[in-house]
Amino acid sequence: MRVYKIMAAMMALAAVSCTSRNAGETAGTPAGKDSKVWSVSMNKICKEWDGQWQGMTVASDGMCYFGSSTHSKGHGAGFHRFDPKTWQHTMIAEDMTYVCGEQDTPSQQGKIHSPIVECDGWLYFTTHLSNYWPEGIANYTGAHVFGYRLSDGTFRDFGIVKPRYSIYSAIGVDPQRKKLYVFVVPFLEELYESDGCHLYSIDIESGEKEDLGLVVKGRKGAAFWFFIDNGGNVWFSLWKKAYDYENDEGNLYVYRPSEGRIETYVDVLPKGKLIDGSPVTDETLLKQRAWTWLSPLPGREKCYFTMGCLGGGDERLWLFDPSKDVRSGEAFEEVAYVGSTYFESAIGGNRFYFVQYEDLQDARTLFSEDEREVDPDSPAYVDRKLHLRSIDLSEGADHNRITDYGPIIDQDGRAARMIMSMAADDQGHVFTYGSWHVNSFKEATLQYLLFEYPGGDLYRLVKRGEFFAVINAGK
């Protein structure tokens, strides 16, 4: 694997980020159809994009829509489209801060860190703050909810849901009742000390926002996914790896619009098992049980979910059926043993795709977002390959039979180091966004050193870059 060497002159040259704000710019139409893995360098478009979490979908028009995120104090999230028929990548918006009309504010709309959901030909997603240092948090205006119309590329800004609050990160849509739901959270200390996380609804037609109640009081929190069933009930869990909550060690929550209240099912999420069937016994992991990925089935009567890496350590794929008894555990049906998983999971056709380290023990104990920061030229670096894998969900298939497509290495020999955003279609295309090895400094991320030097103006090239990639699982 070729990896560039950082030089002061290169850093100075790369310190100029892209300046274009126009939609419709493309990365060209390659002959990638014949590649097993084909990628597009995001940092050749914008040096400051440094990651992407969630924020990817295959829409009803067959195209993949996705975000590109940053921790920059001067640049926000991008929004993109990829057409698997023409193999054309299009940048719809380079900086969502401009789409929000907030380009003159000192804090950016730096991420599309939410699912992207669809209803009646519109995609819906949320923004999230980029700059986590005190100045950025203090000046953050608040997260926006956006609609994007597929037919003509029109954005609709529903505005800031709760001033100075972000959305971290769930959004869901009730297509019958034309309602959006978002999980609103404070990042400013004075707000999470005095208030907490709220569930909000947005009426799609009128844009009216309603506070449905406080979910978590007195601290930051997160809910990454909503399952909105065909009765309009909003199911969710709270992510516990980074936050502590009182009286939540595997709770499941539901907002029932017919009753106008949030109901708590205490300690009902299944206790973890490893891929060999042995139980998870670590008490800390058992307390961290939470949905870390989910996907509704057609009709929204049920949903698939996982609780793997950073969600309690369970290594199974599950089916949740809210029509069955939740408290007794009848609502949770074990589908398959797949090993540790996280955001890098997707349903495409009748297959469940997921990304893991080749060694299942590595997948269980290592987090790729941390591993991507290890200097590949240092003695501490170990070349652990990420593999794409899947199981067949067809009726009668052996759900525990795992297909391994091999290490994720693109047309130019780059290997994936982290994937936190993934979608799939029914044609065997798996779409990913993540951090990869690079072949030159031109492909590298220019990262703001907010954690090392909070409040400073220092940037550095890191020995990785951001890439959108298509994996031809059929090959």
Notes on the protein architecture:
By secondary structure, the chain is mostly beta strands. The chain has one domain (8-224, 343-472): Neuraminidase (6 Propeller), CATH 2.120.10. Helix content is 8%, strand content 36%. It has helices spanning 8-14, 96-99, 134-138, 189-194, 283-287, 360-365, 368-371, and strands at residues 25-28, 37-41, 56-58, 64-68, 78-83, 88-93, 117-119, 122-126, 144-149, 155-160, 166-174, 179-185, 196-203, 209-217, 227-228, 234-236, 252-256, 261-265, 293-296, 303-306, 316-320, 332-337, 345-348, 351-357, 386-392, 403-407, 416-424, 429-436, 446-448, 459-461, 465-472. The protein has a five-stranded antiparallel sheet with strand order 1-6-5-4-3, with no helix packed on it. It has a four-stranded antiparallel sheet with strand order 2-31-28-27. The longest helix is centred in the N-terminal third of the chain and has 7 residues, at 8-14. It is globular and about 55 Å long. The chain starts with 7 loop residues before the first helix and ends with a strand.
Quick overview of this protein structure:
This protein is mainly beta and 475 residues long.
Corresponding CATH architecture: 6 Propeller
Report Rg.
21 Å
Number of domains: 1
Largest sheet: 5 strands, antiparallel
Head-to-tail CA distance between termini? 23 Å
> What is the 3D shape?
globular
Reported by name, the CATH topology is Neuraminidase
Mean pLDDT: 91
